[in-house]
## 1
Amino acid sequence: MAYVAARGGEKAIQQAERLYREQMGRIDRDRVAGIEAALPSLIDRVMGEASLYAPELAALALAQSGGDLYETLLLLRAWRTTQPRLGIAEPVLPDQTFTHRRISAAFKDIPGGQILGPTLDYSHRILATEVLEQGGMSPEPVTPADKPAPSRQPSLASWQKQQGLLAEVTREEVDKHDIPDVTREPLLFPAKRAHTLQSLARADTGGVLALGYAAMRGYGQAHPTVNELRLSQAELRVTHPKGTVFSAGRVKTSQAEMVSKLDADGKLPLGFCATFGWNEVKVIAGATLDLNSSTATSDSPMGEEFFLYHTEAVESSGFCIHFKLPHYVTFQSALDALRGARAEREKTPDASQAVREEEDA
Amino acid sequence: MSLKKLTKDWRAMSYGFLDASAKRELRRKMIKAVAVPGCQMPYASREVPIARGWGTGGLQATLTLLNPRHVVKVIDQGDDDSVNAASIRQFLARVSGAETTLDTLEATLIQSRHRVPEEILREDQILVLQVPNPEPLRPVQPSMAIARQMHADADYGRLWLKLYEEIVRSGRIMQGAEYPALVNGRYVITPSPIPRWDVRKLHMARHLTLLPAGREKRIHAVPPFTRVEPLVFDDVPYKVEDHARVTCSRSGLKGFFMNEIPLDGGGTRYEISDSHLGAKALERAAGEAVRIGETWYKNGEMQ
Amino acid sequence: MITAQMFDAPRLVTQQPLMELSGVSKRYGSVEALRDVSARVYPGEVLGIVGESGSGKSTLLRMMNLEETPDIGDCSLNLPETKGNLFALSRYAARMLRAKKIGIVYQNPHLGLLMHNSSSGNVAERLLIAGERRFYVLREKARDALNASEFPLSRMDAPPIELSGGMQQRVQIAKAIALEPAVLLLDEPTTGLDVSVQALVLDTLKRLQRDRGITMVIVSHDLGVIRTMADRVMVMRRGKVVEEGLVDQVFQDPQHAYTQQLVHAKL
């Protein structure tokens, strides 16, 4: 066979992709709308990790990748990164958000009250096989409370600050156009605070959970307690080119504060994490990592450099699958060194012996 | 004033996929990398439509440099037709309208995974090497923050020690590809995992080599006519792969970097790694008029 | 048993000091580690620094090794290649000076050694930092230094993690003397070793001092070690030098109340 540059590779990759897409069938608006309606938690998780708040696009990406989460994220991130930054919203404070759920494990009751909100926490996890047998399950109607909870809830941390329990963090006044943006700047260490929180916000939920769990089990120094967990909708307030501030809609956000025991100065150390969408596991684990990072040594998995690098979903998953690529050039090079060493050893059985003999010569 | 006036008409994709701000970032950091040879410049690495670790840094650099007048060649492990090379070449053509080629001599821009072509590159050619790990200190210092300080201090004792230890333990340096090299007498780089065979081609080369690592968000460069010296002891010579006397079983070429192909029932045969050079040799043997450029290695020896 | 009388009498200290620290103070948060400490090290002598833990003696030694800088204070080394306050050196320059001119042996070998590299490699690293690029010269110099430290050469490529505590200290000593340092700093070099091993390691150090005339500074909480090794002694307490003088003088006739207490508690 002649050694011509037949473009076999191009054809092969085309057919391989077709084979994959065949199993998913036709993708249309209805399928995308169905995914968006049926899987709000998944949509939330994807939006957080993609750092792109667009439920419809998240549903489209899920449909397009057949539910492969890392492929979904890459689609969304690669789309997001090419979009211009048209404006910067006003900062959002917790007590101004429309709060659906807000709990604290640190106190029995808190100013504003414990608001349970929507959760599966106390549900019995019994697989609803009757759906398959009887053909459906509709949610039971919710009975409204006698007294509706206020839509805005104070932050527990502000009460703790009043009590002198929390270290007073000096707020750095930054023009909103100068807020560091980790999607447009390289992440360096020690990281800027904004970069740390942004990286956690878009980190892989599974990765943050794995390392956060390691911290909780004892690899971290701090024993965490949920100070406040909050699921809300935040008003997206942006400035019109004419100068008026208007609401461009609401985004679902989750945030967690984790506290540890009193530190040497008699203050409660506090860890924080927030993300797009409602994703409680991620913010609790993320805030636990944040809580522990200040006391971690630089080479520890509890250190910021370690957990931020290794919970980056697009980078870690991409690198993992890149090992499928051919590596025969590097392998050949290593093989050559190995054979060379073996030849040396056959000449003289002990390598350091060989070195020594050469020295004596 | 209206939103329409403030923005451009919507298009699904910018020319060359990346938006202008991403390209500006890349241009700035490429210039910095060229200005300080071998120094790793952090840059805001963007997501691109291929997976991280599959040449996203190389792709960003190529997309930034690309214009419709370029002729682009893509290599993966020496081979133009390997699936990932084919995928990247298709993507580049699709988003830029640039011409593509398999021939090193015709290319103005070459994106390569882990090989430098065997034909000598010219002043008007740019080589973009895909870099999985830009940090030569990684084996002795996993923290990027500390490694950065070590580079600033030219603190390479631990790296040298690693080479010392390999000779003591194995009788020779065991580094295969990715052999660390000192650039311009100042910064130690990892020349991406190109084989030791290729590292010498970078020394005082006429072309510009860019080494972007997309996942690790670092870019470094070897400008034209820059010293690239593999870290070696004065009294233990640098050894390239022992391919000088091996013959390609398909093209009959000899004295180039080869792929070893295991055969049924034991034994091996070899195929030249630079696939298109092999193809050209075959075409020439069939009587076609083919131009083969001068090669870095002659009869298996580098001048 | 080794006694001070077995060795040369303390040299007269009329020369220019080799190393001089002056007016050094250092705070760590609310802890005052050093308060206006000055110290002189004369060429060829062995200076002992004694005091209980927390007295600041190890901090002072780390400053002599230029790995720690004080809040205020100067350090000078009377060598042709150094001038001015060494605390003002860049991290790079301090590292190079340390590699070429200062040797240190830590109490904890984990601080001074790469436990999983070869012992010869640990010695070679220092030569590599100083710029040696010949493999066989590295081997030869590492072997010489290990030999001078009375380390068994059959184990020269064994990693310290596989060696005994005494052997680990010998690797540290070899690393410290590989480039003939201007000054050798010893931070509790034999603390934690068996008494018999301790005597052997001290013996090696004493022999090195006698044969090569290496200037040494030895920090110890153990008066016996100081008495065995040092010509002169500085007594430190709570970050301050309370007494200083020739070893025999200070130990036989302590002036300061704290030194008296120390000496009498030991004897």
Note: The longest strand of chain A covers residues 225-239.
## 2
Amino acid sequence: MKEKVVAMLLAGGQGSRLKSLTYDIAKPAIPYGGKYRIIDFPLSNCTNSGITTVGVLTQYQPHALHRYIGLGTPWDLDRHKGGVTMLPPYAEIDGIKWYAGTASAIYQNINYLTSCEPDYVLILSGDHIYKMDYEKLVEYHKEKQADVTVSVLEVPWEEASRFGIVNTDDAMNIVEFDEKPEKPKSNLASMGVYVFDWKKLEHYLEEDNSNEQSSHDFGKDILPKMLAEQKKMVAYPFKGYWKDVGTVDSLWEANMDLLDPSEGLVLHDPAWRIYSSNPQLPPQVITDSGRVQGSMVNEGCVISGTVNHSVIFQNVLIEQDAIVEDSVVMSGTSIGRGAHLSRVIVPPDVTVPENYQLLEPAAGITLLTQDLIDSWKESGQQ
Amino acid sequence: MTLMAAVDASVKVAGLQDLTIHRSVSSIPFAGRYRLIDFALSNLVNAEVNSVGIFASQPFGSLIDHIGVGKSWDLDRRKEGLFFLPTAHQNGGIATVGSFRDFEDNIQFFEKSRQAHVVVTSSFVAGQLDYKEMLAHHLASGNDITEAVGAGGSLKSYILSRKLILELIHSYREKRILSIEDLVNLKKAPYTYGIYEYKGYFAIIDSIEQYFKESLGLLDENNRKLLFLPQEPIYTKVKDEPPTRYLDGSNVSNSMMANGSTILGNVKNSIISRAVTIGINASLDSCIIMQKCTIEENCELAYVVADKDVYIEQGVKLIGTADRPIVLRKGERVTKEDAQ
């Protein structure tokens, strides 16, 4: 019989540097790529990797996520056996226990994991954009007879000090964890994707929970402890596109990456579909005056203006003589005649008035807000 | 609600032959991402009709694949919901809507229902028929059978009581009538007949010419606004296609585009379905391209209807006319030599 892998998807993150985009929703629920939410990527990876038992751990602003994932139907995770289970913090006899760190989030759901009877537990992060075959990762873990396998990615050396760096020997055995090192010894960054032997994980989670000094974090506590106790830890070299969108700029970049056929993630791959909740909308329409170049446009849009090098989500209305360039326009937004947006992220359901322009274009990327629109109106520039 | 529905998906429409070699009229693709039956089904569920029988005859593989258990229409119910009712005959379906012989094959659907009234409808009319309003009109009129009519023509939707349809199914042979449509056209005694006037948008797809005209008619904003009402959505089987990509150098205007396509060439006055590729420097004018077609570079197409999976090799020139569009059958591959 096939050994059982259960995925635990950490989706409780706030992503405060994404400003108003995450006031009401958790970071994994952020819209991305014209129709997706970030969490679609790890969930679809699970589906495409044949992992059918997935626990989703939520904490910060969980409602949008719970509603979005529902029974897990879009990802084929509405199963009689396994399927998706939403795991928010809960109250018990001893009181309510919030998830203090990544490890405590898993520890507090140890009963869930036990009931799943896994052989291996895959720890995933709900806010990374990438396509990965977890089955290969688990195979590698088994081949190496590891206690834990950490998926790593080669990052440019000059950026290595921004990441949790993993130092290995030639056989990819992990010899050291280096959290955001000033002088990195390697450029292999941890992706926050781990495979554990369940029994080992259970042991270390229990031990970590009773350690009052611990911050209950995989990267800071569990993995270093296992390393110190000379457990077999190996690094799995992942090759491909991977992005952690922590800021407005990096969210914009990740969207722009999709427009570069050589650079970004390939979404048009029938063999590795990214599944998502599909609203029932009519096809998009490019009218007589519409002009679209180097862009992605989703269903329900009506484009009568000019769209250049942009990602346009569903149900966006772009009126005649409006210009949108190098921008990300999220669902349900309308952009009035003569408005001009450049290097902007427009959040969902915004009405951009006629002739609107950013008053003081920032050097980086602007996240459009109602406040910016209101102050433009007050400035009397229209 | 006291209404159940019998959707006739086996009716034979002679003028659509090229598009119905592998499928019934009900599953002909329309408006970029829909099948014709989606409109009838969506109108029904939007009117809270939750007991829907689909009367089908061969070839219905494409229809079954599309409908499944009816999840996209919220018809996957424990109570009632969707019933797929194929005819027991080798040759089901006749030229008029609501064949009694097909109904007879599945008479339990009508016998077992708890609903008081039945709407019998075709599956080749796209519109926003309000069955709640039609039923209210039917009940107020006191007539035995009410027919929906738009701009003076029949919309091939009929409401009658369940009791009456059972009576007709039992007696159609001796009455010498074939179908509901047949009965209404003949106005046989002793029944009384009324009409319900529908004033919204509709498209009757009963020939290639109509198919072509009505498809491109959706490029008119007024028609679109009447067919795609945000509060009365048209549901269809969802596909997980990514947004459509418009590459640098492409040029698209006055066109309706479904998701999942990759456009490098020029498209105007056209309807492009899901997952279509249009190569560099290809030019399409007034074309209907169904899903998964590939149009290679430097092609020139005008007034062409390409069914699913058509592959047009580079440099092909195909010019039809509005009255006689060129129809390419499902899966056809067209080379430069063929086109000459």
Note: The first strand of chain A starts at residue 5 and ends at 10.
